[in-house]
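pls read this stuff:
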Amino acid sequence: MKTQLIKQLHNYLLHNHTDLLIALQEEHRLEHYLKQKVESVSDLLAQLLEVKRPAYVIEALCLEELTRDLRPSRFNYMRELLEAEFEMDYKRMLNSGILTYELINLIGACEPIFEVFAFGEENEDSAELKHAVMGMIAEYLDR
């Protein structure tokens, strides 16, 4: 079951936190991170196994807990905003194969904004946050 959770967590990172996945790979810490993260839900896993919950329920509940501190995804937020508001630049980056690289750079450039607004599920739809990030994107693209 833990092996399956590691695979699912890896898949989640691949689709929602490509920036974190790449950083962990570059630091040769990905395997350790995944194992440690899955180990953090061992008690929940044991409880669910004890009450004989179906495997798919166990996986869903454990993955929910494993990804709680990873939501919302800054990577997805930035990608969606770039695609919606800076469509030409988004397409240019996508077609030239540099989109992921540039998104990681943009997240870094916007880090102070994310911190000031305490980016999270409760404010990811904030108009003020969106405009602040859009301003930083525009500045980044002008360079």
Q: What stands out?
A: The mean pLDDT is 95. The chain is about 80% helix and 0% strand. Residues 25 and 99 are 18 Å apart (CA to CA). The two ends are 48 Å apart (CA to CA).
